[in-house]
Design goal:
Mean pLDDT of chain A: 89
Mean pLDDT of chain B: 90
Low-confidence stretches of chain A: none
Strand content of chain A: under 5%
Largest interface: A-B, 54 and 43 residues
Shape of chain A: elongated
Structural class of chain B: mainly alpha
Oligomer: heterodimer
Largest sheet of chain A: none
Number of helices of chain B: 33
């Protein structure tokens, strides 16, 4: 699939989609959004690039492998789950910094975001590579 | 003592790394750990023999009343001394014996895991804590037997021992649960005080049967004895440690530990006497014809384990004393003889008695150790084994029941053990040099240390019988009895009938040895029986079970995606449909205030679904399915579920991409199975069920919706106004954590499948 329109659109859409996905993650605690939806939107950004310029280009647009995002995400969520233990609280207790903007639930959601992005992008890119080979 | 287990585990974790640094010194250095623990236990022993009982208790799982509790009484500390003391010798020995083995570092790690678990098992004062350590010894034994995992026989033996002992362990866990329920506590020190009420308890027969099953499998009692000779596939140091002197004693240890609570009933006595007698006799008889040193020792171990069970079944004070003395003596001489077998194998290149002989000059140190240990095994004075045999004779002769049967049986078995002892301790070293041993040589100092120390301990304990009794035997026996232990252990009681019997046993054993060819030939059919016995049944049962499981799996996992979908969806919808309270069903439809866009979206969904059903190409079907999804998202958006709408929308996009990538590649059989009609039926059932479910759901509120709880608390407790997200990342975060883990595992599976189809390209592109 090498359509000029698609390629050009993808080039502009990708950063926008990624920004939008982070925005969804950030505002998720109060407004519609969250790590799951955000991760999925971010995955669509990579799929879009993969469609227009091939899966290899999509992989190049990320400094680390999509595969690595999965353990990173699981790690972030697990760490945020275990952090309360340091204060003698049960695991998964929500801890907030003053101002109630940043807290372990956001860290947890960031882990969800990374895991979802990693899983969806890894699977779809791998399937596309099957296609092209 | 509470630090012992984590400490030993920690050393085990570091052992492989330590071994790569220290190389030949790893054995002696690592042995310092168990040696230190043995010294620590020895330092405490005088106080413990005076009645002190060091305790440690910390809460572990308070909601279940399970404690991290340890207790060092006479019985526990005796075992700590054995486990740590013999452990130190074994570690030194293994460092030399397995010097060339590529997995020596791993062997140390497994051995220390076992050691830690065994130390925990014997000191635990909580039944469930004990169970954890019990299972850990099973697992580490599995790993040690299969150290040479390239060998099929080793894998098979490891699996068999794991399955037999773990199955017994599960039965035992059920018994523990019943026991704790009956006693109202899981603290062993409390349970043993309630013997009378426990024996009268309604579930006592079950408790007894289940716990005995665990103990019998672990201690290789008939008919579960077969795993122990098979476990001789383990490297010799592991056999000497686990399968003779420590782990197989865990079963009889548990029986001894719980005998104040469960013992004393007729059922207890009858079961232990019958099983113990059968085991000791069978082990002794099967040992007669063995040619392999290790298997011979294994069968004689089975025999002694049977004797120990029998003695516990008697339950008299003298039997308790005989139990402790036999246990100690056996740990010394059997450990030594296993290491001797290792040295002979190492130095002469064979473990087969028919090929061995005349090694005394080539292997003087090993021969000396073998002679002393063999003499103790035969029960010759003045060794500790002599005392063991004498007290055991006394116990069976004075048995409250059945002494007319038990005494001849035990004495007859002792004769077979004398025969076995002469064959192991003497025959490889005397006479002509065997053909396999032309360039035999003795083992190095590290491999002499273990057998010599253990054999000498047997001599010293026999000569210093007074202190040995006061410090070691009596404190342990009094725990078994929950009372005063008998005294008066001595090498010389004057000319008594027991002394006569003892000498007669030795003479009979020597007589058998003179006619050894005929004895071995006469006993050989026993092995044919053994091969067709419980081991055969077990193997057949295992194979049948595997075959049945394979058939079941093939019936469901036949590889047809279509069939999976039809079965899964069909069953799922049927279950929901059957559980719908259809009486509550209320018809519903668009009303005057339904927005017109909503109706349009619904019609779009219906139209797209129809297109999908009629689609001739997969691509059109996927596109139509996408349109269905967009219509549904639109509906969500309209009925104030923006979160759902957003997620649904993105999921739709990605699903369409996914299906477009996958669907064209699926095979399209000319005659799909199950047939199209079945698929249509399931689809209609699904549609009808979901429609019915929505109509029933609208009919009323059968229970209070939980959303009110979340509405009330979301901002206060979780600082978030988006309830959906607050549920995901806070109230139900554990679920989410589980879900993303499942996602990751699924991705792992998918990528593995894709790479398996095309290994090289994936590597290139990654």
């Amino acid at each position: 699939m090498s359509s000029v329109i698609l390629r050009t659109a993808a080039r502009y859409m990708m950063p926008l989609l990624l920004l939008f996905s982070v925005f969804l993650l950030w505002r998720g605690h109060h407004e519609p959004g969250g790590g799951f939806a955000g991760g999925l939107v971010a995955a669509t950004a990579f799929v879009l690039v993969a469609f227009s310029e091939g899966p290899a280009a999509a992989r190049r647009s990320l400094p680390i492998s999509t595969w690595t995002l999965i353990p990173i995400g699981l790690g972030l969520s697990s760490v945020s789950a275990l952090l309360p233990l340091l204060q003698g609280l049960p695991p998964l207790t929500g801890l907030w910094l003053p101002g109630d903007k940043l807290g372990t639930p956001l860290l947890f959601d960031a882990g969800v975001y990374a895991t979802v992005l990693g899983v969806v992008a890894s699977v779809l890119l791998a399937l596309m590579e099957e296609e092209t080979s | 003592m509470e630090w012992m287990v984590p400490f030993v585990f920690g050393v085990g974790a570091l052992a492989p790394a330590l071994h790569t640094r220290l190389r030949v010194w790893s054995g002696p250095v690592l042995a310092l750990v168990p040696a230190g623990i043995a010294l620590y236990a020895a330092a405490r022993q005088p106080a413990i023999s005076d009645g002190a009982v060091p305790e440690f208790r910390a809460s572990w799982i308070p909601s279940l009343g399970i404690d991290w509790a340890f207790r060092q009484d006479g019985l526990s500390n005796l075992f700590v001394l054995l486990v740590a003391g013999i452990g130190a010798l074994i570690v030194v020995y293994a460092g030399a014996y397995l010097r060339e083995h590529p997995r020596l570092g791993r062997f140390y790690a497994f051995l220390f895991v076992f050691m830690g678990a065994m130390l925990g098992l014997v000191t635990a004062d909580d039944l469930f804590l004990l169970f954890v350590f019990w299972e850990l010894t099973t697992v580490s034994s599995f790993l040690l037997i299969a150290l040479d995992h390239e060998k099929e026989a080793a894998r098979k033996a490891a699996l068999q021992s794991l399955l037999v002992t773990a199955a017994g362990g599960l039965a035992m866990l059920a018994g523990f649960i019943l026991l704790v329920d009956a006693a109202g506590t899981s603290a062993i020190s409390q349970i043993v005080l309630q013997g009378e009420s426990l024996r009268a308890h309604a579930s006592y027969p079950w408790i007894l049967a289940l716990i005995l099953l665990g103990a019998f499998t672990k201690s290789a009692q008939v008919p579960f004895h077969f795993w122990l000779p098979a476990a001789m596939q383990a490297p010799t140091p592991a056999s000497a440690y686990l399968h003779s002197s420590t782990m197989v004693k865990a079963g009889v240890f548990l029986l001894a530990r719980l005998s104040p609570a469960l013992g004393g009933s007729d059922a207890w006595a009858a079961t232990l006497l019958v099983v113990g007698a059968a085991t000791t006799l069978l082990g002794g008889l099967l040992a007669l014809s063995q040619d392999d040193l290790k298997r011979l020792l294994a069968y004689s171990t089975v025999s002694v384990l049977g004797l120990l069970t029998l003695l516990l079944g008697l339950g008299t004070p003298i039997a308790a004393q005989a139990f402790v003395v036999t246990l100690l003596a056996h740990a010394f001489y059997k450990g030594a003889l296993f290491l001797v077998a290792g040295n002979v194998d190492h130095g002469a290149g064979s473990r087969l008695l028919s090929q061995l002989g005349g090694l005394r000059e080539a292997m003087p140190w090993t021969a000396a150790a073998a002679l002393l240990a063999g003499l103790s095994m035969a029960g010759g004075p003045p060794l500790f084994g002599f005392l063991a045999k004498e007290t055991a004779y006394e116990a069976v002769l004075e048995a409250p029941v059945g002494s007319w049967l038990l005494a001849p049986l035990v004495i007859g078995t002792a004769v077979t053990l004398v025969f076995a002892a002469i064959r192991v301790g003497l025959s490889p070293f005397k006479g002509e040099l065997g053909e396999a041993a032309r360039d035999a040589h003795d083992a190095g100092p590290a491999m002499r240390l273990g057998p010599l120390v253990l054999a000498t301990t047997g001599v010293l304990a026999g000569l210093l019988v007074g202190p040995a009794e006061r410090l070691l035997v009596a404190p342990a026996a009094s725990v078994v009895l929950q009372g005063e232990a008998p005294t008066g252990l001595a090498l010389w009681h004057g000319f008594t009938p027991i002394l006569a019997l003892s000498l007669l046993t030795l003479a009979a054993g020597a007589f058998l040895y003179r006619h050894r060819e005929r004895v071995v030939a006469a006993a050989a059919p026993g092995m044919a029986f053994e091969r067709r016995g419980p081991a055969w049944l077990w193997d057949r049962g295992w194979e049948l079970g595997l075959a049945a499981a394979a058939r079941g799996a093939h019936a469901f996992q036949n590889g047809s995606l279509r069939r999976y979908l039809v079965v899964t969806l069909g069953v799922g919808f049927a279950v929901v449909a059957l559980s719908l309270p259809l009486s509550d069903l209320r018809a519903a439809g668009p009303t005057a205030d339904t927005p017109i866009v909503g109706i349009a979206a619904s019609l779009l969904v219906v139209f797209a679904a129809a297109v999908m059903a009629r689609a001739r190409t997969p691509f059109l079907a996927v596109a139509a399915l996408g349109a269905v999804g967009f219509g549904v998202s639109l509906l969500f958006l309209m009925f104030s579920a923006p979160d759902l709408a957003l997620t649904q929308l993105v999921v739709e996009v990605l699903t369409v991409v996914l299906l477009a990538l996958v669907l064209p590649r699926l095979p399209r059989p000319a005659k799909p199975k199950p047939a199209r009609a079945v698929a249509i039926g399931v689809a209609v059932l699904g549609g009808a069920t979901m429609a019915g479910a929505s109509l029933v759901a609208m009919a009323g509120e059968p229970f209070e919706p939980i959303s009110r709880f979340f509405e009330e608390r979301s901002v206060i407790e979780a600082h978030g106004r988006n309830i959906v997200n607050v549920i995901l990342v806070d109230f139900r975060a554990l679920d989410t954590l589980g879900e993303i883990t499942v996602l990751a595992v699924t991705a792992l599976g998918i990528l593995t499948l894709l790479r398996r189809r095309r290994p090289s390209d994936a590597e290139v592109q990654a």
